[in-house]
Design goal:
The complex is a heterodimer of chains A (326) and B (344).
Chain A (H helix, E strand, L loop, with lengths): L2 E3 H15 L3 E5 L15 H5 L4 E3 L4 H13 L3 E5 L10 H14 L9 E6 L14 H4 L6 E3 L4 H13 L4 E6 L2 H4 L1 E3 L13 E4 L4 E5 L4 H13 L4 E5 L2 E3 L3 H11 L2 E8 L4 H12 L9 E5 L8 H7 L3 H13 L1
Parallel strand pairs in A: 2-3, 2-4, 4-5, 5-7, 6-7, 10-11, 10-13, 13-14
Antiparallel strand pairs in A: 1-8, 6-12, 9-11
Helix pairs in contact in A: 1-6, 3-4, 8-12, 9-10
Chain B lengths: L6 H27 L14 H8 L7 E3 L5 H6 L4 H8 L33 H14 L6 E6 L6 H12 L4 E7 L2 E2 L2 E2 L11 H6 L2 E6 L3 H16 L5 E6 L17 H8 L3 H11 L4 H25 L29 H5 L3
Parallel strand pairs in B: 1-2, 2-3, 3-7, 6-7
Antiparallel strand pairs in B: 4-5
The chains are: A alpha/beta (326), B alpha/beta (344).
Chain lengths: 326, 344
């Protein structure tokens, strides 16, 4: 297979799952005739016809709620939030309806629903097209949250999310959509949810990250390697459930933990990872765990403001350097 | 359609279900007053004709989305009264196995989807179920209940609009009981009939007396037939009245005595007794027999629920996912021998 971008991998995973299982069904705003604002669903209407993909009105509560209703009736809906920021408009349906459905039915209900869409900043999308909403969802039991950083993972994890019997929030970092290009195999099995990936092996310090900041961390690791510091980079890939074992393993190896995410710091996933590490891996640590994240601020529009708020490679490299020297 | 052996059989079963609903709910109110039941208790007393009438002619595979005052709908759909009582008592044998209170538990085996406390939020879900039915050419229907109070919510608008666009096999039943908790209809909307809004969606709207079982049956039959024939959704508004407060702790002093008396005089159960009398039944005899039957059923349900075990505390972490996650963070002390053998 020729090289595929991250978004082409998502498109491929959708089509492969739709060919495999006639119950897989796509719904969202502008997904059918237009093929999605970012073309994630391009060509699906042509290949599968209008019974498998549906353009909805601008109604996020309806999109999520109808996804739940179709899922409990036996379909496997994949619904798109045109921008993940808009999930706020469907929030009740996600956290109160979808996330509690199995629980409040005493386990007697499967909810095989995927809520996917573009998240993240760095593309001058401004306040409502740039948010990193993962922490809205990573503390909601009943949900799973996935955030791939490579095309292969986007493909493999989306397949697993579609085959999963629980609601999955699938966060696609929009900056990666066309900047990530990889050679993909002809055939690819689903990539199990809940397992981190070793993105780069190293022995001096560990960076635990996910989604849009993975390429930045790898770039920072290259810079540090030139300075003689070997950085391990762990890509979490799934944020709920969190692969705590992977965190423990890398901390056991390097003793130094830097958590990096594009989401804001306060209440972000990094705080949980650091707290867990301090509670459970204290004896393995050689330095206080650190975080590099967005500032506790909205993601502003003007390039100078946005770059100031979001974490960049320089900040990651600086923090890693300080940690290595500790 | 649900099978009744004869008109007589149907007429008497409808009476039985309304009486069972009332007996069950009155017993629950008493249990609450005796502190034998936990949490909020929301009685649908007075609204039995809506709950029973809307479901009486549904098929087992039709899916309903009942409200917390629609106990009767769940009974008619075949949900076991013992499991319902166990649900109210937070028992292991309840619909949600102790996870949620009152009528949020559903019973998928009987086509009952349990709602949340965000009333109106099940309407989008009903649309999805109806969409799945339509896409699979499954001839069944979804029936979603909401109050005139929930009609103010955005979910309701989004759902009705979508259902009309796609001519979905769904019936939206507005149980207009005139109050959203304490807020009267006049402070909720500037129109008299919620069903007026149907026209704005390009949907059929119907208004009927919700305390008149015959009228409920007839209206629902038309709406369900339209849905089954592919003619799309219907907004059915049934005018009714909640005798008790919003919940058992609410004395409902915001309502006038005359209003309560007027509506009590339109009670659906004596009204159906009049119908039965005109159909030649000995109503005294039917009433006596039915009251014995339903009292026994509720006794049995309560005995089953009270004899059922409480859930084990650690079951709180069950039913979150299809395959349980390790939700409790590892307590293995770092650096210990146990940590070294902790799964890699």
């Amino acid at each position: 297979m020729p090289t595929a971008t991250y978004i082409q991998a998502i498109n491929l995973a959708l089509k492969e799952e739709m060919r495999r299982d006639p119950d897989v069904f796509v719904m969202g705003e502008d997904v059918a005739a237009l093929g999605g604002a970012f073309k994630a669903t391009d060509g699906i209407l042509e290949e599968f016809g209008p019974a498998r993909i549906l353009d909805t009105p601008i109604s996020e509560a309806l999109i999520v709620g109808a996804g739940v209703g179709a899922a409990v009736q036996g379909l496997r809906p994949v619904v798109e939030m045109q921008f993940m920021d808009f999930a706020a408009c469907g929030f009740d349906q996600i956290v109160n309806m979808a996330a509690t459905a199995r629980y409040r039915h005493g386990g007697a209900l499967d909810v095989p629903l995927v809520i996917r869409g573009p998240s993240g900043g760095g593309v001058h999308g401004a306040l409502f097209h740039s948010q990193d909403p993962e922490a809205w969802f990573t503390r909601v039991p009943g949900l799973k949250v996935v955030a791939p950083s490579t095309a292969a993972d986007a493909r493999g994890l989306l397949k697993a999310a579609i085959r999963d019997d629980d609601p999955v929030i699938f966060l696609e970092h929009k900056r990666l959509y066309r900047s990530v290009k990889e050679e993909l195999p002809e055939e690819q099995e689903p990539e199990p949810l809940g397992r981190a990936r070793l993105a780069r092996a190293g022995s001096d310090i560990s960076i635990v990250t996910y989604g849009g900041t993975v390429p930045l961390c790898l770039e920072a690791a290259d810079r540090l390697a030139a300075e003689g510091v070997e950085t391990e980079v762990v890509d979490l890939r799934t944020l709920l459930p969190l692969d705590r074992d992977a965190v423990r393993r890398t901390v056991a190896k390097t003793g130094k933990l830097l958590v990096v995410h594009e989401d804001r710091q306060t209440g972000g996933l990094g705080g949980e990872i650091v707290a867990w590490t301090v509670e459970h891996c204290w004896d393995l640590l050689d330095a206080p765990p650190q975080r590099v994240t967005a500032l506790d601020c909205h993601t502003p529009f003007a390039p100078a403001l946005e770059a100031y708020v979001l974490p960049g490679t320089d900040e990651i490299a600086d923090a890693a350097r300080r940690l290595a020297a500790y | 359609m649900r099978s009744f052996t004869s008109r007589v059989d149907r007429d008497l079963k409808l009476y039985h279900w309304m009486k069972l609903t009332r007996e069950f709910e009155d017993r629950v109110s008493r249990l609450h007053a005796q502190n034998r039941i936990l949490g909020g208790v929301y009685s649908g007393r007075g609204q039995e004709a809506v709950a029973v009438g809307c479901c009486a002619d549904l098929e087992p595979a039709d899916v309903i989305f009942p409200l917390h005052r629609d106990l009767g709908a769940m009974l008619v759909k075949g949900v076991d009264p013992g499991r319902l009582m166990a649900q109210l008592l937070g028992k292991e044998t309840g619909l949600s196995r102790g996870k949620d209170s009152f009528l949020h538990g559903g019973d998928p085996a009987h086509g009952v989807f349990g709602g949340t406390s965000m009333l109106g939020a099940t309407l989008p879900v009903a649309c999805g179920t109806a969409l799945a039915m339509k896409l699979r050419r499954d001839p069944h229907v979804a029936v979603a209940f909401f109050g005139e109070g929930a009609s103010s919510r955005g979910d309701v608008h989004e759902a009705m609009n979508f259902a009309a666009v796609h001519a979905l096999p769904v019936v939206f039943v507005c149980e207009n009981n005139r109050y959203a908790y304490s807020t009267p209809q006049a402070l909720q909307m500037a129109i008299e009939d919620v069903a007026d809004r149907a026209a704005a969606y390009g949907m059929k709207g119907m208004v009927s007396g919700g305390n008149d079982l015959g009228a409920v049956l007839e209206t629902m039959a038309r709406a369900v037939r339209r849905a089954r024939e592919g003619l799309g959704p219907t907004l059915v508004e049934l005018k009714t009245y909640r005798y008790r407060g919003h919940s058992e702790h609410d004395p409902a002093r915001y309502r006038g005595e005359e209003e309560l008396i007027q509506w009590t005089s339109r009670d659906p159960i004596p009204r159906w007794e009049t119908y039965l009398a005109l159909r030649g039944h000995d109503v005294e005899k039917v009433r006596g027999e039915t009251e014995s039957e339903v009292a026994q059923l509720v006794d049995d349900a309560l005995a089953f629920a009270e004899a059922s075990p409480d859930p084990e505390p650690q079951e709180a972490l069950e039913d979150l996912y299809a395959t349980p996650l390790d939700v409790a963070p590892s307590a293995v002390p770092a650096g210990s021998e146990a940590a070294a053998s902790y799964p890699p």
